[in-house]
Amino acid sequence: MASRVKRFYIGVGNPMRHDDGVGPRIAEALAALGANTLVHAGDGMALIEPFDTHSDIVVFDATQSGRAAGTITRIDATKAPVPVEIFRHSTHRIGVGEAVETARALGCLPPRLLLIGIEGQRFDPGEGLSAPVERAARLLVEEMFS
């Protein structure tokens, strides 16, 4: 239980662009279970602040890499550079990958930083997640609290 108290969850995305809202959906579900969370819909560079102030972070974001919708990708961002191309579907110029690599260059990555990408299917304007992305989101919420 102690690790849950210290872990900080960040859900990145725009809920008004279908599957891009998966990060916020997961963060909101975890917050309802008592987790320490942040929903981040702004510029990616603003992610550097929590990277510098928390020691164990999990970031959820939609990906667009050509894999099947709902595919979950886990990247330990403390071990190697982040493949920024999979986190490319951002409504802002700077996405998660660029923010992580900027934080690495500035020396402010947390000791533990896990990026979890969920492959999206729809990124057009509108609300609601596609069925495979919704299933992946539910699975991840359960996993984080098991």
From TrEMBL:
Coiled-coil ranges (or none):
none
Q: Which InterPro entries match?
A: Pept_HybD-like_dom_sf, Peptidase_A31
Q: Which UniProt keywords apply?
A: Aspartyl protease, Hydrolase, Protease
What is the protein's name according to its record?
Hydrogenase maturation protease
The UniProt GO MF terms for this protein read: peptidase activity
**Known Gene3D superfamilies for this protein?**
HybD-like
Please list the GO biological process terms of this entry. proteolysis
Question: Where on the tree of life does the source sit, at the highest rank?
Answer: Bacteria
Q: Which SUPFAM superfamilies match?
A: HybD-like (SSF53163)
Question: Is Metal-binding one of the keywords?
Answer: no
Q: To which protein family does this belong?
A: Belongs to the peptidase A31 family.
Q: Which CDD domains match?
A: H2MP
